[in-house]
Amino acid sequence: MLTHEDLYQRLRSKDSVQQLTKQIWQAVEGDDQPFRIMEVCGGHTYAIVKYGLDQLLPSGVKFIHGPGCPVCVLPQHRIDAAIQLARRPETILVTLGDMIRVPGSRSSLQQTRAEGADVRFVYSPLETIQIARDNPDRQVIYYAIGFETTTPMTALLIDQARHADLNNLCFHTNHVLIPPAMNLLMEQGANIDAFLAPGHVSVITGVDIYEPIVKRFGTPVVISGFEPVDILSAVLSIIRQLKKGLSCCENNYARSVRESGNQKARDLVDRYFELRSDFLWRGIGSIPESALQLKPEFAAIDAERAFAEDCPQAGEEQSSGCICGAILCGHASPLDCSLFAGICTPQRPQGSCMVSNEGACAAYYRYRRTQS
Amino acid sequence: MSRIQLAQGSGGRENQQLIRDLFLKYFSNPILAQLDDAAVVECGTTAVSTDTFTVHPLEFAGGDIGKLAIAGTTNDVAMRAACPEYLSVGFIIEEGLETELLERIVASMSSELQVTGARIITGDTKVVPRGAVDRLMINTTGFGAVRADCSVKRIVPGDHILISGPIAEHGACIYAAREEIAIAGLTSDCQSLWPAVKALLDHEVPIHAMRDATRGGLAAVLNEWAEQSSTRLMMTEEVIPISEAVRGFTEILGIDPYILACEGAFLLSLPAENSSEAIDILHRCGHPDAVLIGQVENADNGPQVILTSAYGTQRLLDFPYGEILPRIC
Fold it and tell me: Tell me: domain B6-146, CATH 3.30.1330.10, correct?
């Protein structure tokens, strides 16, 4: 039987971490050049802060936290849609747990549930099938969130629901794509020397999706896993590339990511979804072709069309004065925000980065709010 | 199958029969047998603690709600260095509960009472209509004779902090049972801690404070201690005992083991010079994994709990907050 030791110990071993740290220090020795590395994915941010990996590195090597938290980048009007849909009579809104405390413009799903709405949180989207079966007289709406990683699970849920002839299940789609966001940040002149690219997204997409960014901006991209050894060895690869003046896309997470990704999962996604012309990212703005929607032939199960009256259009974002937008673009750190850990806490989040476990502010709050 | 009916909680003949056939059969002792309105006992300086138990499922690997209701309350009494002597018990039973299941739970309570020698001296039974409770709730209140001054206010900088055994065992077991996740080896650590506490007191180990790491787990107790004693607690992550099964379970779900409940592990704060003796004693009386996991320092930046990793990096160990949510990606 595969044990926890087999799975993780090698990737967290003290010796390996110390050795990699030493190699990184040697690689940057005598160099005043800063190495500004954006970890795109919120999972990486969480691991870096939890393990304190930044504390091990030379001061010139900086992690810039990126926009890769699918909950954090959802604009308020789409959260408001979730709340309005949940309030519809005879309706069950199903979504993933991280959505629970995200503030919309006036309320959150947690508050809406407390007021009597039937909001359910699932670990796997496929649990929604059973909920729909058990409640044939009620409308079940699956509120889908996530990057390329979770989209295939929504597609599989749609596929299974169709085969099960469930006619009381529809979908509100909020799936977003990573490369357009990386592209936009670079276009806007973000001060980033290299990307630590998301591991789980790449499991689905494969390696090629980052090539245009590498070519256009000359920015190294290294795909990384989520354990300390994964992240530090990816950092070492990045520094070696930068020192040699190279820019390539490297797969440093080969135990999970195949060069071509998961074609079967992508086929399933392509069967049901198409690109939106643009999508509003919270704090970042509108990004062309950065999100997915159900194809027109599936309009009948598309909650945005079926219940259009409960899906508000993008309006003025209510500002609480927090700097989530700047944090998501890599221009600021959570500790730069005057609301951090005072007015803005995980219990009373003012901005989306404080809500999800993958949000940079939530990670800083949990692991280092009294240290600087 | 025989099931509990509303009439068995109504104070009439059926109620009397339930008391005699079930509760007196398992809990019998001269004080309870008097069946007066109140029990009369001699009391010196007494530690008192009450807790109400509700757990789903009622029976789980390593215990059941009955064992939990006895061990949980006597442990709270024991944490004040008091010998658990008497307990009150209140049952709130949902109509329709299987009588056999109730008897198994009462038998389990009786057998857990043997571990400490504590006696149930007064009790109450209510049967409520379907839906009013989730099958069964048990309240217990424990009374114990205090043998030493043991409280959070005695924690001082320089103290060592020990843990008696692996953490998060109960929380992981219950969470897995609720979510129907089958992982071999997940067993609740539910047990009475008084024998271990008694051994420490018999050897006159000058313990400053003890607390069992129940709801909120290790993270909650350490943060409560830091706040209530205005200290900073420096913990060494590498040495905190966590079983392979719990590590695997928490890893898969992305849950922090430090926030999951223990029902048979407790923390001790005591002078540094006494810590190895205390560890030896705990090892000899059923807690082979007892270990030094941290120490108490002056709180220069306010009360806080700091976890030092194997790599030498430091992070905050925070109070648990919000609902326990698994990771999404």
Answer: yes
Superfamily of domain B152-316: PurM-like C-terminal domain (3.90.650.10)
> Which pLDDT tens digit goes with each residue over A169-202?
999 999 999 999 999 999 999 999 999 999 999 9
A183 and A172: one domain?
Answer: no
Q: How far is A1 from chain B (nearest CA, A)?
A: 11
Give me the residue label for tokens 């945005």.
A304
**Higher per-residue confidence, A259 vs A346:** A259
**ipTM of the prediction greater than 0.90, yes or no:** no
Do A96 and A62 have their domain in common?
no
User: Does residue A370 have a pLDDT over 80?
Assistant: no
Confidence (pLDDT) at B328: 43
Nearest by CB: B316 against A56, A101, A367: A367
Asked if residue A119 is part of any domain, the answer here is yes
Q: Determine the residue of chain B that is closest to A127 in CA distance.
A: B179
Whether A150 and B328 lie within 8 Å, measured CB to CB: yes
Q: Looking at A85-99, A101-115, A204-218, B208-222, which range is the least confident one?
A: A101-115
Each residue's pLDDT tens digit, B6-38: 999 888 899 999 999 999 999 999 999 998 899
Confidence of residue B184 (pLDDT cuts 50, 70, 90): confident
Which tokens hold the place of A163? 């085969």
Q: Specify the long-range contacts of residues A109-114, CB closer than 8 Å, at least 24 apart.
A: A109/A79, A109/A82, A109/A83, A112/A83, A112/A86, A112/A87, A113/A86
Q: What is d(CA A363, CA B6) in angstroms, rounded to the nearest whole number?
A: 51
Structural domain total, chain A: 3
Name the residue with tokens 């490369």: A179
Q: How far is CA A138 from CA A118, A141, B276, in A?
A: 11, 10, 62
Domain range spanning residue A229? Answer: 32-69+179-251
The reply to whether A122 and A160 lie within a common domain is: yes
CA dist A15 and A4 (Å) reads 18
Position A24 in a domain: no
